Amino acid sequence: MSIEYLGLSEINGPLVVLEGVQDASFEEIVEITVDRTTKKLGRIIELYEDKAVIQVFEGTENMSLQNTHTKLTGHPMEIALSPKLLGRTFNGVGQPIDDLGTISGIKRNVNGSPLNPVSRKYPRNYIRTGISAIDALTTLIRGQKLPIFSGNGLPHDKLAAQIVKQASLGDNSSDEKFAIVFAAMGVKYDVAEFFRRTFEESGVADHVVMFLNLANDPVVERLITPKVALTAAEYLAFEQNMHILVILTDMTSFSEALREVSSSKGEIPSRKGFPGYLYSELATIYERAGIIDGVDGSVTQIPILTMPNDDITHPIPDLTGYITEGQIVLDRYLHGQAIYPPINVLPSLSRLMKDGIGEGYTRADHQDVANQLFSSYAKVGQARALASVIGEDELSPIDKKYLTFGRAFESEFVGQGEVENRTIETTLNKGWELLRLLPKEELDRINTAILEQYYNAAE
Amino acid sequence: MNKTGLIYGINGPVVYIKGNTGFRMSEMVYVGKEKLVGEVISLSSDTTTIQVFEETTGLRPGEIVEATGDAISVTLAPGILDNIFDGIQRPLSEISKISGAYISRGVTVNALDTSRLWDVHMTAKAGQEVSGGFILAEVPETKSILHRVMVPPNCSGTLLHVAADGTYTINDTIAVLQLNDGTEMNLTLTQKWPIRVQRPVNARFAATRPLVTGQRILDTLFPIAKGGTAAVPGGFGTGKTMTQHQIAKWSDADIIIYIGCGERGNEMTQVLEDFSKLVDPKSGNPLMDRTSLIANTSNMPVAAREASIYTGITLAEYYRDMGYDVAIMADSTSRWAEALRELSGRLEEMPAEEGFPAYLASRLSTFYERAGMVRNLNGSEGSVSIISAVSPQGGDFSEPVTQNTRRFVRCFWGLDKALAYSRHFPAIHWLTSYSEYLGDLAPWYAQHVSPDFVDCRNQIVAILNQESSLMEIVKLIGSDVLPDDQKLVLEVAKVIRLGFLQQNAFHPEDTCVPLLKQLKMMEVILYLYSKSKALVTMGMPMSILKEGNIFERIIAIKYDVANNELEKFEQYKKDIDAFYDQVIEKNA
């Protein structure tokens, strides 16, 4: 038997204030019934004696100071978990929207707890995506968080879908305990539909859990969507021993929802109006990836974010880059050249790559080839800048070679088909093919022995 | 009976109590039924404000807040090394035993193992007049480090009783001290010290010895002194953490305190795994034997992040008091500054630049001033060096944290995005970086390495500077039109960049290079330059000089000459002479 509180004392954007509450706790979930018909969920985000500031997930439409009944639930935001989650679709706060009934199982606080660094296991197993630019230069590692920095209109969804379809462990071992958790925050209906179709076509639909908050769904709901999704992912990974790939799209909508609530609360903004705790808030999401020592499962995250105005220094990509273990950056120039996937390799990076490649993982020459490709491609940029000033004809022979190399690198190495699934051997051999376009003495990042072994090797 | 109060309001990590509670500033408190650890951060006649070091989810107004009577402190005793703590010195491995893989709230654990028995060798005798810092006993804490148990600062008197050598826990009494006012005090292996208060020293003096890191660009171009301060600013992916790891692994400090402040969990796991395996070249023992880790990963509570920096520096000062050279890696101080900003925002303080509180600069300066080379209370010499990573927003060095840090550090190792993109590591840019210690350390280099060291270093820097101004021209018209002497400068600068500045952290020989090899490398490069310059002056074109592979061979020295085969350098000089003669012979 719990008390219902009638009415509210203030409504401001997504926030409402309730006075006279007794025994409320911080971050507790409340149920608000509007006009005795519609039910909404809210969360207590500030508490002063008997006055609670509540964030309403479904928005405050139709609410007045008189027509609401508020009930405390006595617990923070929770979600029911069981292996039956697989193949189901939920809304942004974890309620089923596929008419297949509710999930019963153990309940977990969606806020999670920080993983103890002592209990973590450092990720070392590489995931082969079949995409050369990723496999060779920004290798994805199981348990990593590797975001895609994109812009509006760039094919980040296609790329994410291709990764999902092709991802396999480096040794090609078959892997039934693989599942995908997909969380959409403020994305267009078409995007969600695209992913749903892709999952179905590739036959993994019964291994997918979807959490959908579409662009026209309540904004505040987005704040909880990634947490709900990650709680499900952690459960499947660490209690059901599955390897989970989490796709979070679009983190920009999440951050903007945070800004919206923050400004309703009247908080002091830091950069571009975002609250000072954006970093901590993003970190509590991204850090929920990894491997626990002694447990079979893993959580790998591929968050997608669209950089406002393609600006990588915007607070959202900037803070993300400081938390995640690298990034894959998509580029409008390459996209304009009809190169797919348009990955700009220079600002892209995988921090965990160095420990998951080379002898015993991929191939002994992997690190050297990657370094050399990066270094040579960086020189292409200089040659191009020079060519735009003095004209291509005036370039020195070596600079001309770099231009040839650059074009080949972009079209043949970075560029590949949407269904093309390259092995690591193919990828690295292609790398050598390109490096042979340059004179041997220009290859200054490669160990002499490896250079001798591969540079002159017959095709 | 300790003072108590009742929770009135909760806003994120900040908790308010109504009324005058009589709490003290910086006092440690237990908040709520779960006894979450907190600290008093502001007091007024009607409100007490507390920051809580753990998640506040589930707290209710009306729950009790209990004062402890002590300021937030660390426990100082054997067991700190080869250990990993959270921001308020709770041992993470103990927490994992209690709460599993995840860190739950309100876990009460002792900072250090109180049941472990340590071998104690007493060095003090009964009847001795002692004062703060006096060394009572020695404990082999790890294979590498001898822990010196000291009389706490601010205490002096006569030792009434001293225990015999033997095994003791950190809470066993090993001596009884009669203070000057006649009261008796039991001394154990343990002392407590508030984290926000600097530990007293006898005197500070100027830095004269370098902290040798084995990293060429640091040791040669921008050295840091023992007791010095350095900032490593850089956007994401430029190699801040890598630079810190390299220094933590290879520098000649006795003790490393590594503070992971608001950074990635996997990185701390990596340090823990790597440092347990890697062997300290000086002692032959695992690196963890001289290392203590403080981990407040980015998803741990923000208030503890603010405290973690102070916890780290207090531990460092404690080991400095024993006469050790301690180096702190703070990764990253920007996260610490952001924690200040977040808490300041919750307190609704008036913001200064970009939402940071107005006291950002003063907090930074008090932190960096805790570094230094000092004479301790017991007469020994020790030092605390601070190497802090700064993560500027958008990689823009003009933001407040970088700018304010710049004011208080004397070494600036600016990481460059363009270098990182072309995988030139360490991506420390030679034109934006500087070290103010160069002059202070010049006598040391002259005495311990070679009188020519600083001279060689300056020539190298001069060539790099010439290259950068020549590159301005090359960018406009290409390098073909340059006269041969300028082409030579570009060529030699390339040798310096690739062969000297670039250093491969994953190569067994190249990861750490002794000073003497650094000197020899510079000498060979400069020798090549002077010989080539003579040839160019004689009218030989660069294309002829480039015919052989001497430039490539000099670049490869870093891999081809092992750190213990320095005699090979003579051969390179002979080869340069041969190259010189050959060019003249062919083209005379």
Automatic annotation (TrEMBL), chain A:
ATPase F1/V1/A1 complex alpha/beta subunit N-terminal domain: residues covered: 9-64
The organism's taxonomic lineage, starting at the top: Bacteria, Bacillati, Bacillota, Clostridia, Lachnospirales
Xref: NCBIfam families: PRK04196.1
Pfam families named among the record's database cross-references: ATP-synt_ab, ATP-synt_ab_N, ATP-synt_VA_C
SUPFAM superfamilies reported in the protein's UniProt record: P-loop containing nucleoside triphosphate hydrolases
UniProt-recorded Gene Ontology molecular function terms: ATP binding; proton-transporting ATP synthase activity, rotational mechanism; proton-transporting ATPase activity, rotational mechanism
InterPro entries reported for this sequence: ATP-synt_VA_C, ATPase_a/bsu_AS, ATPase_F1/V1/A1_a/bsu_N, ATPase_F1/V1/A1_a/bsu_nucl-bd, P-loop_NTPase, V-ATPase_su_B/beta
Top-level lineage group: Bacteria
Family: Belongs to the ATPase alpha/beta chains family.
The ATP synthase A/B type C-terminal domain, residue ranges: 355-455
Function, as annotated: Produces ATP from ADP in the presence of a proton gradient across the membrane. The V-type beta chain is a regulatory subunit.
PROSITE patterns: ATPASE_ALPHA_BETA
Protein known as: V-type ATP synthase beta chain
PANTHER family the UniProt entry points to: V-TYPE PROTON ATPASE SUBUNIT B (PTHR43389)
Species annotation: Anaerobium acetethylicum
Keyword tags: ATP synthesis, Hydrogen ion transport, Ion transport, Transport
Example GO BP: proton motive force-driven plasma membrane ATP synthesis
Domain ATPase F1/V1/A1 complex alpha/beta subunit nucleotide-binding: 130-350
From TrEMBL, chain B:
Name the UniProt record assigns to this protein: V-type ATP synthase alpha chain
Binding annotation for ATP: G234, G235, F236, G237, T238, G239, K240, T241
Cellular component GO terms held in the UniProt record: proton-transporting ATP synthase complex
Start and end residues of each ATPase F1/V1/A1 complex alpha/beta subunit nucleotide-binding domain: 214-435
Pfam families, A to Z: ATP-synt_ab (PF00006), ATP-synt_ab_N (PF02874), ATP-synt_ab_Xtn (PF16886), ATP-synt_VA_C (PF22919)
PROSITE patterns referenced in this protein's UniProt entry, alphabetically: ATPASE_ALPHA_BETA
Catalyzed reactions per annotation: ATP + H2O + 4 H(+)(in) = ADP + phosphate + 5 H(+)(out)
Keyword Cytoplasm: no
InterPro entries in alphabetical order: ATP-synt_VA_C, ATP-synth_a_Xtn, ATP_synth_asu-like_sf, ATPase_a/bsu_AS, ATPase_F1/V1/A1_a/bsu_N, ATPase_F1/V1/A1_a/bsu_N_sf, ATPase_F1/V1/A1_a/bsu_nucl-bd, ATPase_F1/V1_b/a_C
Family: Belongs to the ATPase alpha/beta chains family.
Signal peptide (UniProt feature, chain positions): none
Gene Ontology molecular function: ATP binding; proton-transporting ATP synthase activity, rotational mechanism; proton-transporting ATPase activity, rotational mechanism
Entry function: Produces ATP from ADP in the presence of a proton gradient across the membrane. The V-type alpha chain is a catalytic subunit.
Domain ATP synthase A/B type C-terminal: 444-534
NCBIfam families named in the record: PRK04192.1
Organism: Anaerobium acetethylicum
ATPase F1/V1/A1 complex alpha/beta subunit N-terminal domain span: 7-69
Top-level lineage group: Bacteria
GO biological process: proton motive force-driven plasma membrane ATP synthesis
Keyword annotations of the record: ATP synthesis, ATP-binding, Hydrogen ion transport, Ion transport, Nucleotide-binding, Translocase, Transport
UniProt-listed Enzyme Commission number(s): 7.1.2.2
Record has Glycosyltransferase as a keyword: no
Domain ATPsynthase alpha/beta subunit barrel-sandwich: 109-196
Broad EC category: translocase
